[in-house]
Structures are given as C-alpha cells and as structure tokens.
Design brief:
Elements lengths: L17 H6 L14 E7 L5 E7 L1 H4 L4 E5 L22 E2 L5 E7 L2 H9 L2 E6 L27 E3 L2 H7 L2 E9 L11 E7 L2 E6 L4 H12 L6 E4 L15 H12 L5 E4 L15 E9 L5 E13 L12 H4 L5 E10 L12 H19 L3 H7 L17 H12 L12 E2 L2 E13 L7 E8 L2 E5 L9 H13 L6 E4 L16 H20 L8 E5 L12 E13 L5 E11 L6 H20 L28 E8 L23 H13 L10 H4 L5
Parallel strand pairs: 1-12, 10-11, 14-15, 19-20, 23-24
Antiparallel strand pairs: 1-5, 2-4, 2-6, 3-5, 7-15, 8-13, 9-10, 9-12, 13-14, 16-17, 17-22, 18-19, 18-21, 22-23
Helix pairs in contact: 5-6, 8-9, 8-14, 11-12, 13-14
C-alpha cells in the first residue's frame, strides 16, 4: 500500500484557483455562459398559513417579453420529492409566509419582476403559529435528531446525583434563529436538451442535487448533470437542494432548449433555503467541592417546521465532552408554520456547546476554580458514551498551550474589577469539539497523462474552503509527484460520485478516496505507467470509527472590552488552539479556523433573525438589518494547532477543520463579557441593555 509521504501535505500552499478568482474568470453558477437565457422571478406567499383561493396571471402574461407564468394551476406534477420543501407549486396550500406560490419567466430580469408584481392573489387565511417557546403545547420527541442520533440518552441516576451535589448550576440558555447568508446567494441555471437536464448550481453537493431532482422529476439520475466548480460560500445552507432548484428545473422543462436563470433574491435568503433554528437549553451541572462533575443534564428544545422535520442535535456534545457517571440528554421539537430549518455551520454543536460551556464557566466560579482547571479535572479517559478509547484527545494540551500563548491569568477571575480607562476588561475561555466524519461512497479516478503528470477526478465541491488546493496536495503525496503535476477536476456530476462538502467531512472523505485510487493505480501499473493508464477506487466506511472515538478539539480564548458608560462591546483579540490531526494546508486551514471564530463573535454579539409573530416573516431580511461583524468589529483573531498525525482518522492523518472554529467561540466571548462586567448573559445575542445594570 502506498502511503502519503507528507512532502506536499503540511506545506502552506496558495489556492490553485486563486488566480482565476482574482481575475474574475472563475464562473459561479449564475455566470456560466449559456445562449439566450431566460430569467425567473418568484412570487412568494403573503400569508403565514392558508389556502390560495384565486391566482390571476392575465396581467402578467400580457407583459411583452413574458415567456410563461407557473402557478399551482399549470405547474407539472412532481413524482417523489425527497423533502416537503421540494413540493413546489404542487397545491394551493400555504404552509409558511415566503413560500413560493408562482413564478414568472421572461426575456429579462426586469420584465420578469414587473410581471410578477402584476399577479393578483387572494387567500383564505388561517390562524398561524410562528412563535417558538420551550413550553409549547405541541412539542414532541422526534425519532432522531440531525446526524441520526437518538433524541434521548441516560446513564446513572442524574436526579439523585444532582440532589446530593455540593455545587449545582441549573440555568437556561437560548440561541435565536439565524440565517446563513453566503455572499453568493443560492442560484441555479437549468436547461433541458434532448430530454436531458443540465443545472449550473451553487451547491455543496452536486450529486445530491442530481439525486433529489431525479426523484422529484421522475427521471433517471444519469440524465441529469449538475455543474458547480466554484461556490461563493454555503455555511451548510447549500448542503442540499432547496425549492429554488426544483423550480428552476420545472421552468426550464416548460421551455425546452432555453436556459432559465434564477438567483434567489436576498430577501428570500431568509425564506426557503434553510436557517439555524432557535434553541432553548436547560443545563444542570452537579459537582463536588473540588469541581468534579457528579451529574450532567442537558435538555434541549428546538424549532422545527410543519413542512419538514429538522431537529438540531444541541444536547449531543454533552454526551461525550466531560467525565461523569450520571448523564441525561433530551431533545424536543416544536413544529411551527415556518420554513424548514436546515444546516448552518456546526448545526447542533454551535448552539449546544454555547449552553454547555457557559454553564461550565458558571460552575467554575461557584466552585472558586479557574475555568481551565475545572475542565482539566473533568477530562474523561475514554469516551463516556461509548466506552471506546480516544483516537486522539488533546483538549488539555489545547487549553494549556492556548492559555500560555494568550496570556491567561488564572488568579484574576473576579468579575467586574479590571479597567483600562473607560473600558471594563474581561477574558473568557471555552472548549470546542466536533465529531470526525468520513462519508463512504466518494469515488476517484486517477489517470496518467504522461510526462509525470496526473489527472485526478471526483465530483467534490469547493465552497470557498480550499478543496481545489487540499485535494491537489493529497493527490501529490499519494501519487509521489509534485503538486504542480496534478490536475484536479471537481464540481461536476459528470465526474465520479462525491459526498457532500459538509460536516467537516469533505477533505477526509474525498482525500481517503484519492489515496485509495492512488494505491490501486500503483498496484496495477507500478512506477512506470504508460500515458492513459487509469484506476478508480471508492472510499468505504472508515474502519477505525468502529473501534475508536474520533473527534477534533480546541480551546477558545477571548478578550472583551465593555464601555463603562454606554455598554458598547468590543473584542480586541481572540485566540484558538486546535487539535485536528495533520493539517493538510496550513494556509487554508488557518482561514477556516479564524473564519469560524469570527462567526462565533458574530453569533455572540450580532446575529438574530426577528420573526414577526403577526405576519410570519423575518423582519430584518436584508444585510443592512441582519447584523454581522464588519472589519471594525473583528480585532486580532488568530489560530494555531498542535502538531499531530492521526492515521486512525484518515490515511492522510487529518481530521476536519471547517466547523470547529465556531463551536464554543460564542461561549468564550460571553464568558469574557461576564468577567468584564459581572453580568451573566444566557440568551444570544448579547445586547447593550443586558449590561446596563452592571455598568458603574
């Protein structure tokens, strides 16, 4: 078996697709050149629940340049959509405000918009419920939560242990609805020719889009080609197809031979393309006087939808994070008249670890312990849930080395006493964890081109994370050549099957397939192949996952400054120390870490989608009022990692890096706010008026 020589892996390498992106020659989905395109503009429901009584399209059809208007009256019947949100224009029922109820296709976007505004709709409006609350009477226990985990787990006697504990934390923590909003919106360009469908799509999973469209349209998947070589961000929302993909394909089918372009308007990015559901977590921690946990209970309630069930696995991280004999976790879902939630960077782990890590900080203060020392005292020797040994768990090293580099002072933990002029100053820490995932099924074909050069082909997607480059480095090591001698082809279902760019699993899954294909190539052809020599391999399930518990870990450190007069919050510096196996490309990995940490600052201090209880829509549905940090809000954010090589995780020795940066980072910021002011904030985002009572 050929194993990676690590001559390319670990080398800080510029993005191989960088020149094309800088020059503007890397086409994103909407920019793919097609002849004589038509343009689609959707009409969305103006009520949160009800039934369409009348949809009058006469005025719209009379506008010069309109090619067709799709409504539930004339839209083609779909066959077996994978999800409820894919049943576009299949009935007159309205399940949420913002649901697509009609679409205009015209010669120009301006004509399509003008005609769309002329469609007259009358509704039989019904009572709706869009207000999420933990005590909702319709909440229920789902069969499973995101990731396929069981909703509830228990070991030991939690209630008795809590009753006997020397120190108890029993608090409720909440996170709001949030929206992914990549700068490139969801877009699709579809064209039918010779009864075959081609879709240029902004997606994290080209083969997943093809499979869903085949199911919905009732055609064979091999008659659908999805092309997505460049994607302008996704953060999970593009991990699967949404209503816009199905609608674009339906419209193009009605106009055979004519390409139809659909760019989801920014306001609709808050509608039918997914979001992070709000969560409420009650966390109870019991400990002895030395801070050793005797019980953990994490009860999570999350928002779901009548359209599709999606349940954030917020309580799952608590199952393996710290040592205790008594643990209970539960998940309950609240279905509402809202769009279906979906993945958003570290679904489950991001809101769940916010709750757990703030609770740990509260426990440390009540025990009179440094919060780093508390975490170290509760470090488990093996996975508390499965009993499996760790493949590599170096969280303690991340905490200690991160504290050293950050300049953590364990003797200065009394809140609200440090000042620098008008600024109240505080520091906070939180742990991070993310499960290691290798999705089986990715296939890679290696072909020798002659003169020492190779082609490596797979249908993976680069959503801006650097997959073009990391896969080049993996292939160079596996094939024993230089990176510049590898021509990677990705982002097309005409290439071999590839799994989703999600769950921090992309490089692990595709890279494992590359190594397997390179091994097969060398077995067949040795060291002297002829031009045209070719071999393929499909990555199976990672065998070590059966025997070891494999996760990535990290520690976040944040400094916060709060204006003593106004309550204004600043984060001048933040540092993350991570354990993620071997880092394939330090340059892009660091970018992922600090991007996730910036996301955590945003989660802690800015992001919140405000849904109007009366009308059912998100009020702040644009990038002017949906607040995210600007450059002025992000200070010195830096990241480093431990040097390691985890061959149990992947043949490259690597684990995922894409999502762990956001996990725990919001908690570190909130814990620093408490240290600066003495005010414990348990509901995100932190608002200035939360801090006013504590200001001097």
């Amino acid at each position: 078996m050929v194993t990676a020589s690590h001559t390319a892996i670990g080398t800080s390498t510029p993005r191989v697709d960088g020149p094309q992106k800088v020059a503007g020659t890397a086409p994103y989905a909407y920019e793919h050149p097609v002849e004589h395109p038509a343009y689609l503009v959707p009409l969305t429901a103006a009520v949160a629940r009800g039934r369409i009584r009348v949809v009058d399209t006469d005025a719209a059809l009379a506008v010069p340049g309109v090619l067709t208007v799709l409504t539930p009256q004339n839209a083609a019947r779909l066959v077996e959509p994978d999800r409820g949100e894919h049943r576009v224009l299949q009935s007159f029922e309205v399940a949420f405000r913002g649901q697509i109820i009609a679409a205009v296709v015209a010669e120009t976007p301006e004509v399509a918009q003008e005609a769309c505004d002329l469609i007259a709709v009358e509704y039989d409006e019904q009572l709706h419920d869009v207000v999420f609350r933990a005590d909702h009477p319709d909440r229920y226990t789902p069969e499973k939560v995101n990731g396929g985990f069981p909703p509830d787990t228990a070991r030991g006697d939690v209630d008795t242990a809590l009753a006997r504990a020397d120190v108890v934390v029993d608090e409720t923590y909440s996170t709001p609805e949030e929206h992914n909003n990549p700068l490139e919106p969801h877009t699709a360009v579809a064209v039918w020719a010779d009864d075959r469908l081609t879709v240029y799509d902004s997606t994290q999973h080209p083969h997943g889009v093809a499979a869903a469209l085949a199911s919905a349209l009732g055609i064979e998947q091999d008659r659908i080609r999805v092309v997505a070589p460049y994607v302008g961000g996704g953060f999970g929302s593009k991990g699967g197809p949404h209503a816009h993909d199905v609608l674009t394909a339906m419209a193009a089918r009605k106009l055979p031979g004519r390409a139809v372009k659909f760019a989801v308007p920014r306001r609709d990015m808050f509608g039918y393309v997914g979001y992070r559901a709000p969560t409420v977590s009650r966390v109870r921690l019991g400990a002895d006087h030395d801070g050793r946990l005797v019980a953990i209970a994490h009860d999570s309630v999350v928002q779901s939808s009548h359209v599709d069930e999606f349940v954030e696995q917020a309580a799952v991280p608590a199952r393996t994070m710290y040592a205790t004999d008594n643990l209970r976790t539960t998940h309950r879902a609240v279905p509402l008249d809202v769009p279906a939630p979906f993945w958003m960077r570290a679904p489950g782990e991001a809101p769940g670890m916010f709750a757990l890590e703030v609770a740990l900080d509260e426990l440390a203060h009540r025990c009179g312990l440094d919060p780093i020392e508390l975490r170290i005292r509760n470090e488990p020797e093996v996975d508390p849930e499965s009993g499996k040994p760790w493949s590599s768990r170096r969280l303690v090293e991340c905490l200690r080395e991160g504290a050293r580099r950050f300049g953590w002072n364990p003797d200065d933990r009394e809140p609200g006493i440090r000042r620098d002029g008008r600024w109240l100053v505080g520091t906070g820490v939180a742990s991070a964890t993310y499960p290691h995932m290798v999705a089986p099924g990715s296939e890679v074909t290696v072909r020798y081109l002659g003169e020492g050069k190779y082609s490596v082909r797979t249908g993976a997607a680069d959503i801006g994370t650097g997959a073009w480059t990391t896969l080049t480095l993996v292939a160079a090591d596996a094939l024993g050549c230089r990176p510049e001698e590898v021509d990677v082809e990705i982002g097309d279902t005409a290439l071999p099957n590839a799994t989703v760019a999600g769950g921090s699993s992309g490089t692990s899954s595709w890279g494992s397939a590359i190594v397997a294909a390179a091994d097969e190539f060398h077995k067949r052809y040795g060291d002297d192949p002829e031009p045209g020599a070719e071999a393929s391999a499909t990555a199976g399930k990672a065998p070590e996952l059966e025997h070891y518990s494999i996760h990535s870990y990290g520690a976040h450190f944040a400094e916060v400054r709060v204006d003593a007069d106004t309550g204004e919050i600043r984060v001048p510096r933040m540092f993350g120390m991570f354990s993620v196996g071997r880092v394939v490309n330090p340059r892009t990995a660091r970018s992922q870490f600090i991007g996730g940490m910036s996301f955590g600052i945003s989660m802690a201090l800015f992001e919140e989608s405000v849904r109007d209880a009366r009308l059912g829509h998100v009020v702040n549905h644009d990038l002017a009022e949906y607040l995210i940090p600007t450059h002025a809000d992000i200070g010195d954010v830096d990241a480093a990692w431990l040097d390691e090589d985890d061959r149990r995780a992947t043949p490259m020795g690597s684990r995922g890096t894409g999502e762990i940066g956001i996990v725990g980072s919001a908690a570190a910021v909130v814990n620093a706010v408490w240290h600066a002011t003495g005010t414990r904030v348990r509901s995100l985002p932190v608002r200035l008026d939360d801090l006013l009572p504590a200001l001097p």
